[in-house]
């Protein structure tokens, strides 16, 4: 253990992260491997790779390992859409049907099963802000909770059926919403629709838009929708939780669909990245929208995005459909335009600051930015689902315990 300090963080106390991960997750075989980074005041203070990126081939996790970040794609897509907002291309209270005319007559589910639904009219039209805040009434096929998400599964609206983003938007025009827009919160394909709007408003495909307006300016050379052949050796395997705190192979990196160009460019969950690339994105946000001289978003826009946009300043549990998501600890947490936002530290039962924002991914990756402490944490691993273990809350406890100034 060392007692040295960097940026007000005690490195000896940060070493508890590695000890905890080894003792609680790697030694008992709960996780294959992890990569954890802590940064403060614009510098990476602590970063450690532990365990294996590919158990079957006995390959270690390394600093440049490529990870499926799944829903950590969502903040990138949200920034992309808000870049276009800054150009006056749309307003947040614009009806989505202004840009997707086939959505003019969306209805709300009342009863029945696909394709025989009984529906009613929406109380008001769905807006662009409803998409950004997951208050749209859309859902996800993996929810396994309603007859609407059952229809999503039947139609393969998760990208597995080979459909394009354009086809997804078209299919959604014919399905009912789970609720009238703005009346509840439900994790959904809404951010994929945001990606569609980015394409529509910019005239570029989503991968081209991301590359030109976010990845290249920030120097993110290892973030993409499909892994290039010459980088496949760095791609981690993905694992699935099994009862009894074990895991099994879910996606072999050498046979992964992520090694092929996708039909479906998913702004909701399609990106592969490295911890250093994602740090460049997160540090740009922590800096108010700029990193190493490249500005991707205005300071005031970002401040607006990380406000709680839920009605009446409610938190997620008071507005969310039961069992609707697990990408973040959510008591005392609201939602902004693309991020969760901590509103009430005591209610969250996890150390942090009011205004802390971030998100996670289906394979248990997670990041947060604490603007009060000027602190960033990025955690990479590959275990589905993200609700398998409470490691995100444990990391927050250890990292905040290392702040000594």
From TrEMBL:
What Pfam families is this protein classified in? Beta-lactamase (PF00144)
Q: Name one GO molecular function term.
A: hydrolase activity
The record's Gene3D superfamilies line, in alphabetical order, gives: DD-peptidase/beta-lactamase superfamily (3.40.710.10)
Q: Which residues form the Beta-lactamase-related domain?
A: 23-386
Recorded hits in InterPro entries, A to Z, give:
Beta-lactam-related, Beta-lactam/transpept-like, Diverse_Enzym_Activities
Protein's UniProt name:
Serine hydrolase
Which keywords fit this entry according to its UniProt record? Answer: Hydrolase
């Amino acid at each position: 253990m060392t007692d040295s300090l960097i940026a007000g963080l005690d490195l000896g106390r940060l070493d508890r992260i590695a000890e905890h991960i080894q003792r609680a997750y790697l030694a008992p075989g709960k996780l294959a491997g992890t990569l954890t980074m802590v940064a403060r005041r614009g510098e990476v203070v602590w970063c450690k790779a532990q365990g294996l990126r590919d158990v079957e081939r006995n390959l270690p996790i390394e600093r440049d390992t490529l990870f499926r970040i799944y829903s950590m794609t969502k903040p990138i897509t949200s920034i992309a859409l808000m870049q276009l907002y800054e150009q006056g291309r749309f307003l947040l209270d614009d009806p989505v049907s202004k840009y997707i005319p086939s959505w003019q007559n969306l209805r709300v589910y009342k009863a029945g099963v696909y394709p025989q639904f009984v529906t009613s009219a929406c109380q008001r039209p769905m807006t662009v802000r409803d998409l950004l805040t997951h208050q749209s009434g859309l859902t996800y096929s993996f929810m396994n909770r309603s007859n609407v998400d059952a229809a999503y599964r039947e139609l393969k609206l998760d990208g597995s059926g080979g459909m394009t983003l354009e086809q997804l938007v078209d299919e959604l025009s014919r399905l009912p919403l789970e609720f009238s827009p703005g009346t509840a919160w439900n994790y959904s394909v809404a951010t994929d629709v945001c990606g569609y709007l980015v394409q529509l408003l910019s005239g570029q495909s989503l991968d081209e838009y991301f590359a030109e307006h976010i990845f290249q300016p920030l120097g993110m050379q290892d973030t993409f929708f499909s892994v290039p052949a010459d980088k496949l050796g760095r791609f981690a395997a993905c694992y699935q939780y099994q009862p009894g705190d074990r895991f099994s192979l879910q996606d072999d990196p050498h046979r992964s669909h992520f090694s092929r160009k996708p039909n479906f460019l998913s702004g909701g969950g399609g990106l592969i990245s490295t911890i250093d690339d994602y740090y460049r994105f997160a540090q740009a946000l922590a800096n108010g929208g700029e990193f190493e001289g490249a500005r991707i978003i205005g300071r005031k826009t970002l401040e607006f995005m990380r406000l709680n946009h839920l009605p009446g300043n409610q938190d997620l549990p008071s507005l969310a459909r039961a069992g609707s998501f697990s990408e973040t600890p959510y008591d005392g947490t609201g939602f902004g335009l693309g991020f969760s936002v901590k509103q009430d530290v005591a209610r969250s039962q996890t150390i942090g600051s009011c205004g802390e924002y971030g998100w996670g991914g289906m394979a248990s990756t997670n990041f947060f930015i604490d603007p009060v402490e000027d602190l960033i944490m990025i955690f990479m691993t590959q275990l589905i689902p993200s609700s398998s273990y409470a490691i995100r809350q444990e990391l927050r406890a250890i990292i905040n315990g290392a702040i000594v100034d």
